[in-house]
């Protein structure tokens, strides 16, 4: 036996690749800091831990580790990896730990991580990831930790983390996140900790965070958030909230009223001069205010009184008035907090009762300028004209809720570094030619809730980097034709909740880089065949809540990248043949719900198939739907509130639903004896010809509930809050 063991050990040693070290006793192979250009193909088959740090692979090809199926740990840090080919890790069904940190990966494809169904930790820190394709994590049903720190993410689309059913900690720190889809986190039911610190979030992403009902810790520190609004955070289980080192100037009294479990609130190093009584945060035990310019005057008494009454521990010290400077909050007595003749500081670096020092940073009177974050704010100051003389290095300028009414030419001189401009709710009726001249770094422009009804292209002269333009809730009756021809980098255009009646040819001229177009809540009745022709890179088209009476098929030609189409809440009663054929090769998410749809042609979905991930047909009036047996990639199918006629013609649909590992909500509307029953459980099919043939795996409606328990088989993918889970119907 000893001789045989020695012989086997010698054989294993002989198979160890030359630049590597093999520990056969622990089934551990290390090939560190070498010049390997490809994954060695002579690694012992029984290897469990493989450490390849510091090599130069560039690309991980499909099936790269098929020869080592017993791997549980794989380390590929600092390997100059730029691309993971689809199927790169196929065959590693036992892998629980994968480290790809400090590489140069820029894009995660749908099948890049295919086959890793046992993976528990995935480390992608320190790459160049700008985009995550929907479905990239769809096969990682066992993942508990996902580390995406220090990448180049700017935007998180809806359902981007779909499939991560047991994920506990999502780390997104040190990216450039500015926009989060409202359902970006909808598919994370087990998440307990979310790290979003060190990003570019300018407001609390309340709608997206509301999907995280089980999360207990949220880190939003080091983001340029200036204000926490009323009931901004609705997280039922949240206990620890970190908003430190942001740009907070105010917090609403009931900001946390919908997070009743909140215990610890960290507001260190902000620009808060005080806080109101946080009456809504009934369970709060500690609030940290160190590093804020607290003004301990009579204005702080209500908060101070609330701290004592609610028995909340507060950490922080007074910055003014001079007599109280340095005093801790818990040492103050109400009579000491007087109001005298204090005047508000003109900037965070200028304390009350002190003149501005010579040579200090310029800032318009009545505004606040932060030197640390290069932010300026004059929000809600009742200003009639746009102020000037902001510091030249200002990157974010918040001018919301001032009655400017107009933006004149050259309104923002000397702000060549400005990236984000907020002009929401300013009663603006005109954006004059040259209004943005000189804003050569501007990326984000928010003009929501104004009175704009027209725009000239010349208004955007001098702002060629503009990528995100928000014109929601204005008075447009048509898309301002040609207005975007000076914006070659425009990615996202919001024109929701206006009064637009049609989309005409030429309206989007020049918007050749547009990826996302939001037109929900208008009055659009017609879309010209060539209206969308300039937007050949369009990925998302949202048309819900308009007046379309038919699918705009002709307008969809020439959109090879369109992956999401929303037609919900349009009065489309009939759907003819091949209506989605122009986008059949790219479409993944299709919303046809709440339309009053009465009839769908058997050939309506011609061309659609395995690429479709989600299909919403709920709350319509049809009694049958086309054959969708080739929709093999479905992760979400919503058929709730559709009055299916459960006769023998519906038998193919019933059989197909029975095979799906989806909860679809399909119920019978007729005949009378089946009304209200699930299609799967209706007994009306028992008399149909062919019912007894090919019934392997069929659910017999007469069997007991115990016999029809939900399947425990795991699949990839996850439904959003509005959809259905992947358990059995």
Automatic annotation (TrEMBL):
Region annotation (Disordered) ranges: 337-358, 692-729
Going by the entry's taxonomy, the superkingdom of the source organism is recorded as Eukaryota
A Gene Ontology term for the protein's cellular component? plasma membrane
Instruction: Note the SMART domains from the entry.
Output: LRR_BAC, LRR_TYP, LRRCT, LRRNT
Give UniProt keywords alphabetically.
Answer: Disulfide bond, Extracellular matrix, Glycoprotein, Leucine-rich repeat, Repeat, Secreted, Signal
Q: Which PROSITE patterns match?
A: LRR
**Entry annotated with the keyword Disulfide bond:** yes
Give yes or no: UniProt keyword Repeat: yes
According to its UniProt record, where is this protein located? Secreted, Extracellular space, Extracellular matrix
Give all residue intervals belonging to the LRRNT domain: 15-49, 362-396
List, alphabetically, the SUPFAM superfamilies matched: L domain-like (SSF52058)
Q: Main subcellular localization, coarse class?
A: secreted
- InterPro entries, A to Z: Cys-rich_flank_reg_C (IPR000483), Leu-rich_rpt (IPR001611), Leu-rich_rpt_typical-subtyp (IPR003591), LRR_dom_sf (IPR032675), LRR_TM_domain-containing (IPR050541), LRRNT (IPR000372)
Taking every annotated instance into account, which residue ranges of this chain make up the domain LRRCT? 292-340, 643-689
> Which Pfam families has this protein been placed in?
LRR_8, LRRCT
* Record's function text: Potential negative modulator of chondrocyte differentiation. Inhibits collagen fibrillogenesis in vitro. May influence chondrocyte's differentiation by acting on its cellular collagenous microenvironment.
Record-stated family: Belongs to the small leucine-rich proteoglycan (SLRP) family. SLRP class IV subfamily.
- Subunit: Associates with collagen and binds to collagen fibrils.
Q: What is this protein called?
A: Chondroadherin-like protein
Which species does this protein come from?
Platysteira castanea
From the UniProt record, report the name of the gene that encodes this protein: Chadl
